[in-house]
Design a protein that fits this description.
The structure is a single chain. With 487 residues, the chain is of the alpha+beta class. The protein folds into 3 domains: 163 residues, FAD/NAD(P)-binding domain; 164 residues, D-Amino Acid Oxidase, Chain A, domain 2, CATH 3.30.9; 76 residues, no CATH class. The protein contains 15 helices and 18 strands. The strands form 2 sheets. Strands 3, 4, 5, 6, 11, 12, 13, 14, 15 and 16 form a 10-stranded mixed β-sheet that branches. Strands 1, 2, 7, 8, 9, 10, 17 and 18 form an 8-stranded mixed β-sheet that branches. Helix 12 crosses helix 14 and helix 13 runs parallel beside helix 15. It is globular, with a radius of gyration of 22 Å. The protein binds flavin-adenine dinucleotide.
Length: 487
């Protein structure tokens, strides 16, 4: 672990709490504007909600129905920006919306929605939508149930298979521009002078060492942990966010395309998507008030997804289910059903010296970060313009090795990779292998041990830590009797 001293020796222009995609985006934007920047993340970078998402870079057709045109337009513009600045991570993906028992009104509504989606992305590089007959739909997605199929709408969005790397590349680029960033370092308190926040009390979660992180302005980008961190920094305001849980499962590939489906259980929209050679199904949306750190898919969540998919892909229950994934959304607090709450973010000064980011999506992270750094710059009296819409992320400039010893040494030497779990579950797509990397764990632990000077006991502890994290994603198995699982 790196010593805290470098972090706590200076007074920065801005200190960011939270190393998910939004905090990482804020750090990169501020560093590119020439500000001095620090960032602390209590766990591994990108290990929070960023790794629990559906992994789409999308305007969100669903939000059109909620008349959230501002959000859809912003995200469609950002989709184009990300396709440009991170082409190695963000890829175009074609979606089908198959129609079964759909009234003329529903199909007409879908068509208008598609036209509006094209209109709101008038500056896009992706193809426009198409309407398909039943035969054309089956030619493109042969595993769909043929009986009752009326046709489909086809349209393009984009996918980020590894949002963890999108996050990490923002971290690494911020570092390249002088930012000081520390994972496994949590905020545990705050110091004020004349009513204004002056410093955060930070603690290394590995060594227990504590120090003071001083800055002129602070940014709370802790997503689903927002209200907890606000309280820790002395903010007594009632909760500002609503937290909801969403889960996904991965199973053997049965689909060619990404599919948008409506659950027969409750009418909610969900996805069946190709992801890293597997089929990725999700998500759910249920209120969740526990600590987001302990979120996991339970048997009921998985059963809901299977019951939702089955009428469209009847073979799903015969396939091997490999694993699950869960995340906690942070939505700006509103009443109503979880799915009906707007995904629009909000940026406010929640206490003197603290700019807070509430809500938001991965898709809009760069624009959200720009807005947050604009607010920071106003406080600092700095007029440097944002550059993140122009500057490519580092992996787009020089492709990095994706596996083998070279990737592992690189991860340890340059990518803040401190644990076997960091490497297998977030630096590489191993979490999506049928065994979630279990077969590679011993070799990875031995090689990391050589690089980081671990003894045999530490190697054993690292393996246990990795297995505990990987096993949490399989815990639902004990809650669904008679189901076929791989591994
Ligand atoms: C099921 C689901 C599906 C989604 N699908 C999509 C999608 O397809 N497309 C899309 O654009 N968006 C999607 N989203 C939304 C998107 O994932 C989130 O908006 C985004 O990841 C939030 O990023 P963040 O940086 O705010 O939060 P996080 O990634 O959670 O980062 C916050 C960080 O703060 C850290 N932290 C907490 N407390 C402290 C502390 N005391 N000190 C230091 N650090 C601390 C946490 O460890 C965490 O890493 C989805 C969300 C969910 C839950």
């Amino acid at each position: 672990m790196q010593a805290l001293s470098k972090l706590t020796d200076n007074t920065y222009d801005v200190a960011v709490i939270g190393g998910g995609i939004i905090g990482a985006g804020v750090a990169r934007d501020a560093a590119l504007r020439g500000l001095s920047v620090a960032l602390v993340e209590k766990s591994d970078f990108g290990s929070g909600t960023t790794s629990g998402s559906t992994r789409l870079i999308h305007g969100g057709l669903r939000y059109l129905e909620m008349f959230d045109f501002g959000l859809v337009r912003m995200d469609l513009r950002e989709r184009e920006t990300l396709l440009r600045i991170a082409p190695h991570l963000v890829k175009p993906l074609e979606f089908l919306i198959p129609f079964y028992g759909a009234s003329l009104w529903f199909r007409a509504k879908m068509r208008v929605g598609m036209m509006l989606y094209d209109l709101l992305s008038y500056d896009k590089s992706l193809p426009h939508h198409r309407m398909l007959s039943a035969a054309e739909t089956l030619a493109e997605e042969p595993s769909l149930r043929a009986e009752g199929l009326q046709g489909a709408a086809a349209y393009y969005d984009a996918q980020v298979a590894m949002p963890e790397r999108l996050c990490l590349e923002n971290i690494l680029d911020a570092e390249r521009y002088g930012a000081v960033l520390r994972s496994y370092t949590e905020v545990v308190g705050a110091m004020r002078e004349s009513g204004r926040l002056q410093a955060l009390r930070v603690r290394c979660t590995e060594t227990g060492a504590e120090g003071e992180l001083r800055a002129k302005v602070f940014v709370n980008a802790t997503g689903a942990w927002f209200d907890r961190v606000a309280r820790q920094t002395g903010d007594a305001h009632p909760p500002r966010i609503r937290t909801t849980k969403g889960i996904h499962i991965t199973c053997e590939r049965m689909n060619h395309k990404a599919n948008v489906l409506f659950s027969p259980v409750d009418g909610r929209l969900f996805f069946v998507i190709p992801l890293l050679g597997q089929c990725w199904i999700g998500t759910t949306d249920t209120d969740f008030s526990e600590d987001p750190t302990v979120v996991r898919a339970d048997g009921e969540d998985v059963e809901y997804l299977l019951r939702s998919v089955e009428p469209f892909f009847p073979q799903v229950r015969k396939l091997a289910i490999y694993s699950s994934n869960a995340g906690v959304r942070a939505l700006v607090k509103q009443e109503g059903s979880a799915s009906s709450v707007s995904r629009m973010h909000s940026i406010t000064e929640t206490q003197p010296g603290m700019i807070s980011v509430l809500g938001g999506k991965i898709t809009g992270y760069r624009a959200i970060a720009e807005e947050a750094v604009d607010a920071v710059s106003r406080q600092l009296g700095s007029g440097a313009p944002c550059r993140t819409h122009q500057e490519l992320l580092p992996g787009a400039l020089a492709p990095e090795p994706t596996g083998g010893a070279e990737a592992l040494q690189r991860a340890v030497a340059r990518e803040h990779c401190w644990h076997v779990a960091d490497y297998l579950l977030r630096r590489r797509p191993t979490a999506f292998a049928a065994d979630q990397g279990r077969g590679e764990a011993e070799t990875a632990a031995r090689l990391m041990g050589e690089a980081l000077g671990w003894g045999p006991e530490q190697i054993q502890r690292e393996l246990e830590r990795y297995r505990a994290e990987a096993d949490r994603a399989l815990q639902y198995r004990e809650e669904i009797p008679g189901m076929r699982f791989s591994g």
